[in-house]
Amino acid sequence: MLTKIFFQNTTIEINQKGAELFQIHKDNTTYIWDVNPQFWNKTSPILFPIVGSLKDNNFFVENKIYSLLRHGFARDYNFNLIEKLENKAVFSLMYNKETLKIFPFEFELQIIYIVDEDGIKINYVVKNLSNQKMPFSIGAHPAFKIEGNIENYSLEFENIENLITYHLENDLLNNKTSIIPLENNQLKLNYNLFEKDAIILKNNTTSFVKLLKNNELVLKIIFKDFPFLGIWTKKDAPFICIEPWYGIADSNNANGNIYEKEGIQILDIDCEFYSEIFIEL
Question: Domains in the chain, please, with CATH?
Answer without folding.
Answer: 2-280 (2.70.98.10)
